[in-house]
Design a protein that fits this description.
Length: about 575
Amino acid sequence: MFHKIALAVALTVFTAGMVWKVSTWFRYSLGPGGSCFSPSRRIVAAGRGLVLTLMSRKVFTLVKVFFLDAVLQRPVFREDFLRWLMHLGIYGGFVFLLLVHAFDTYLVAPFFPDYASTLNPFLFLREVGGALILFGLALAIYRRFFRRVQRPRTSLMDVYAMAMVGVIIFSGFFLEAAKITSNRSFQDMVEAYTTQADDQEIRALESYWVEDFGLVSPSVRGPFDAATLARGKAVHELNCAQCHAAPAWGFVGYAMSVAMRPIALLADRAGLPGALTWLHYLSALLFLAYLPFSKMFHMFAGPLSLMINAVQGGRFNPANAATRQMIELDACTHCGACTFRCSVAVAINEIPNLNILPSEKISSLKRLAFGANLGKRQLRALQQGVVLCTNCNRCSIACPVGIRLRDLWFSARERLLENSMEEFQLLSPLAYYRGLQRERLDEERYRKPVDLALDGIIVKPSGNGDTLNVGGKELLGALRSSIQANSLSNCYRCGACTNSCPVVRNYSHPSEVLGLLPHQLMHAVGLRCWDLVFGSKMLWNCLGCYQCQDNCPQCVSVTDIMYELKNRAISHKYQEMEQ
Ligand code: HEC
Ligand code: SF4
Ligand code: SF4
Ligand code: SF4
Ligand code: SF4
């Protein structure tokens, strides 16, 4: 009775959780302007996309991706064979056990009228499923502790998932072992299933079970004579054999039962099988109920993400783009493959901000999408993480669930910009990718943050002769100590740099638009006229193309100096904002 209630509660929580999870895909969005679409419009758009896909040739792609990439895990196979083996063991075994063991009454029994969990092939197959999980867990431990595979970070959620699988599987095997040895189970069974057997026959049966079935009995003890065993076998065949294969077919549980024989009687009297039954049952139910809220939800979102990204070409309904990104956020397994490949992940050694690592950034992105109240500090940290990304896209290629990570970063970046978070890196070549994506944004959305940043960073002449203090003396010292900037003293103001600059060439009256031109900038630096230097738009329009530096007859590192000045101004600005 109680176990039925527990099952009902778990299933209810699970179902409610699933419905809630799926609803968030349509209610929230990461990128800017996602709120332009109402949930109902997004549901309609998704439904339309689904129907159109199912009616087109793309349906074959869907099937292929589902089997090869989601079920057989081809992307993981390509990336790391051991990890593939580990994952397939754990999840293959788990799904198998779920179907043929946890839901056997509904999924197996109807097809096999003589079904009993203690009969073959079910007994053996169930054991193979469990052994697969054990094998996967062992591989995971080996990789983590002996081969020391580089992993960015283990989160609480990772620990939860592994611990839960461990508890369920070990309580299962332990329970099997305890029951094999259990005298109480034996006595109950004898009471239920022996008809017309006298005491002697039952003793013989018990002897037979002790000898061949691993039972530990308080009353009968070997060695037994052949006649008793033969008699016991006959009773067994008459009463028990239709439901019982030799327990050794459950090889893991049987091996454990052999090991626990010395304490079996004590354990049985203390009610160990009952306690383990509850532990196994309740932990499985807890796992099920919490599944939609845990990272295990990737079991559903992962294949979906893979399939959607396989059939969605470059252009698609923006309403679906927002939905896709929400599914992707749920699909992440926190495997770390992206961080392992990331070209800027090493920066974490210098800048202690976890948001630099793609695998860790995902959780911040989730909170951003859900509109969680992130503090200014957290937003800045996230922004830094997104901005430092070089958009190399190596993460997306490595991701086993097909998440288009670079797109996620882009959406997050624009979302932060939309909230009027000034971002001066927009003015640096790191914003190149944003320029390439310009057509995805309308002109105003593209321009606004750039103007905001320019406005924030360009120094306006104060008029009262104060020299600006972007580091002042310190700046000069920094420039002096930099090898590149030292070359400045060689400049004889020939203007070759300016003449080779494509930005300058772009305007008929460059000085009006850009302020100081490259050779004038160099001159102003030499004269330490910082307000002129940092008030010049040239600095921020420079493409970093190195034409000037290549053409300088005096080998002045013009472009490198430009970089140095920009970095200086930006870090000065951030410091100012932090105060
Ligand atoms: C109608 C089928 C059926 C018959 C007949 C039957 N059993 Fe069982 N028996 C089971 C099932 C099913 C289990 C597992 C119950 C569970 O999961 O707790 C079991 C469990 C047991 C266990 C606990 C160990 C284990 O493998 O789970 C013992 C011991 C046992 N039976 C002994 C006997 C004996 C002795 C007889 C003959 C007198 C017998 N059974 C007859 C179905 C049967
Ligand atoms: S796109 Fe960004 S996050 Fe992804 S691997 Fe490259 S640098 Fe790292
Ligand atoms: S984004 Fe992909 S590669 Fe990165 S941790 Fe998540 S699942 Fe793994
Ligand atoms: S080309 Fe070289 S030497 Fe000539 S002005 Fe520019 S920095 Fe100076
Ligand atoms: S690096 Fe900058 S200043 Fe030099 S030529 Fe290129 S755009 Fe002009």
